[in-house]
Specification:
By secondary structure, the protein is of the alpha/beta class. Among the domains are: 61 residues, no CATH class; 81 residues, no CATH class; 128 residues, no CATH class. It contains 17 helices and nine strands.
Length: 420
């Protein structure tokens, strides 16, 4: 902090004048080093006090200083973990490694500007904010400070509040310009009464990418109909983006369940076939995931593995957490407090080998929730040399045997009923 204050006073001198580059040359450091140190003078009061009292390290302080003051307080809390013990009334606060804070900032604060739905050069979108191109709070505005991050992720916004305000303004502007624009939600569940937003089960999104094969081309989401129209997402993920949808329940292409002329027996058979294929795919996926987990070597220390897996579990939704728990023999009803508590206790007792396996499995499940699950699983299987074809064949044999046994049991049950 004293070093940072010294550099700041040099920059503020009227005579002689200094630049960051000149200071760097005089003290034998790089301009990036000087710029990073200077940011320490922008720490909020709580973060500066924690740094002076050595509650956080210089790595934590440098990461916090890169953020706007409004975001530093929440990020400061993410530097610590509270541990409850039976012998103490109050929880013990433990400082987490710098990489934990870096991961938290990346997932909770930084937003990729290339994914923004609004015009990043529009200075009038939110009158109180400038355009993103001129904004000093984007990482690309200060390449000396965010050089490494720019290489990996590209230009990012460090102010989620401003970003969300621009997304809301963009949505309002789009609806005003096109009143007929359909508003949709990407979340499942019923909407509030009177809401103009269509829930996920009331429309079919038309995909822009091309089908991979003829079988996939037959699926409704790859077809357009006379009712296809533009829609804007106003709730859920990807708010502000425009998509093509069919929201007409009378459409025979995208809502075949409403057809009055369909062959019910054929439709039920097709549904049963799809259900079976999905069940096989799910079982294959879990078997492949288990095989990958078994191939994971033990390398990291237990404390490192525990820290990583706790962060991953925090990011996972409850359904995938239950899938991961079942992989390790943990089953618990949701009304008993949920699987999260039980699984967390299991993780803390696990050895290094089990934790290594959990890290890989949780990473795959988390990536699959945000990408293409079959591709992600296939790539992971190739890394750990898992025979996916062999697993698939075995699962299909098991399902065929179960179906055969089920059919064989039906006549016996009918005969028993007749005899009774």
């Amino acid at each position: 902090m004293e070093e940072a204050e010294g550099y700041k006073r040099l920059l503020e001198l009227m005579e002689p004048t200094f630049t960051v580059e000149q200071i760097a040359a005089k003290v034998g450091k790089t301009p990036a080093y000087i710029t990073t140190r200077l940011k320490l003078t922008d720490l909020c009061d709580d973060a500066a006090a924690a740094f002076y009292q050595e509650h956080i390290g210089v790595g934590h302080a440098l990461l916090l200083a890169k953020l706007p003051a409004a975001q530093q307080e929440s990020a400061l809390k993410a530097c610590f973990k509270e541990v409850h013990t039976a012998s103490e009334d109050k929880p013990t606060r433990i400082l987490l490694p710098v990489r934990n804070l870096q991961s938290w900032i990346a997932s909770h604060i930084l937003l990729l500007l290339k994914d923004a739905p609004f015009n990043k050069r529009d200075a009038q979108l939110v009158p109180t904010a400038c355009s993103c191109a001129e904004c000093p709070k984007r990482t690309g505005h200060n390449k000396l400070l965010f050089g490494d991050d720019l290489g990996r992720e590209g230009d990012q916004c460090t102010d989620p509040t401003c970003y969300q305000a621009k997304v809301s303004a963009h949505v309002a502007k789009a609806i005003t310009a096109k009143p007929a624009l359909v508003q949709i939600s990407t979340t499942y569940g019923a909407q509030q009464e009177g809401s103009p937003v269509l829930p996920r089960n009331k429309y079919t999104a038309i995909r822009d990418d091309r089908p991979k094969d003829k079988e996939e081309a037959k699926r409704p989401e790859f077809k357009e109909c006379k009712f296809t129209t533009e829609a804007i997402i106003t709730e859920g993920e990807d708010v502000g983006t425009i998509h093509k949808v069919c929201a007409n329940p009378a459409c025979q292409v995208h809502h075949p369940k409403q057809s009055t002329n369909r062959d019910d027996a054929k439709w039920k058979a097709e549904q049963e076939k799809q259900r079976k294929e999905q069940a096989i795919a799910n079982t294959v996926g879990l078997r492949v995931l288990s095989a990958i987990g078994s191939a994971v070597p033990v390398r990291l220390m237990k404390r490192d593995l525990l820290s990583v897996i706790e962060r991953l579990l925090f990011l996972m939704d409850e359904n995938r957490l239950e899938m991961l728990a079942r992989q390790h023999g943990i089953r618990q009803k949701r009304d008993d407090g949920g699987v999260k508590k039980t699984f967390s206790a299991y993780v803390r007792r696990a050895d290094e080998g089990t934790l290594s396996r959990l890290v890989v499995e949780a990473s795959i499940l988390l990536a699959a929730s945000r990408g293409n699950p079959p591709v992600i699983l296939k790539e992971a299987a190739a890394t750990y040399k898992v025979d996916t074809d062999g697993i698939t064949a075995k699962v299909r044999q098991e399902f065929a045997a179960k179906e055969k046994a089920k059919k064989a049991a039906q006549p016996a049950a009918k005969n028993a009923t007749k005899a009774a």
